[in-house]
Structure formats: structure tokens, C-alpha cells
Amino acid sequence: MLRSTEDIEKEVIKGISTISEKQMKELLESVNKLQIKYKDLENLIEEDPELKKLIKKKLIENNRTKINL
């Protein structure tokens, strides 16, 4: 019998975490929203060479070069 992804996630949450299913759902929704917003920002930056240059400069100044632009 195949188990659903949701059933597997519930089992994993119970085994390794003390957070509730509601908290996990909220966390996953928040991460998804951030990914969408980040992608939108990334697209704006890619479309504007001057903005991309400025952001790269600021990232270097603040030692935050791990972001791939």
C-alpha cells in the first residue's frame, strides 16, 4: 500500500519535531511565499543591469556575496 506524501510528512514531524502540524503548515506556507517574492525580486534585478550592478556592489560591501546574481 502506498502512503501519501502528507502521511509521510506527518510521521516525520512526529518523529523528529515538537512543532505541531499547524506550525509546520504555517512554516511551509511562509517559505513558499518568500520563494515567490525572492523570484520576483530576482527577475527585477536581472532585467535591470544598473540595479544588478548596484546590488552586487552593496553585497560586496557588506560581505554578503553568497547570493548568486
What is this entry, summarized?
This protein is mainly α and about 70 residues long. Helices cover about 75% and strands about 0% of the residues. It starts with a helix and ends in an 8-residue tail after the last helix.
What are the key terms here?
69 residues; 3 helices; mainly alpha
Give an account of the 3D structure.
The protein has one domain (9-61). It has 69 residues and is mainly α. It has 3 helices and no strands. The protein is elongated, with a radius of gyration of 19 Å. The mean pLDDT is 80. The chain has helices spanning 5-16, 21-47, 49-61.
Task: Give the overall pLDDT as a whole number.
Answer: 80
How many strand units? 0
Distance N to C terminus: 45 Å
Order of helices and strands: HHH
Count of structural domains? 1
Low-confidence stretches: none
Shape: elongated
**Gyration radius over CA:** 19 Å
Largest sheet, in brief, is: none
Class of secondary structure makeup = mainly alpha
Number of helical segments? Answer: 3
Helix content: over 70%
The share of residues in extended strands comes to under 5%
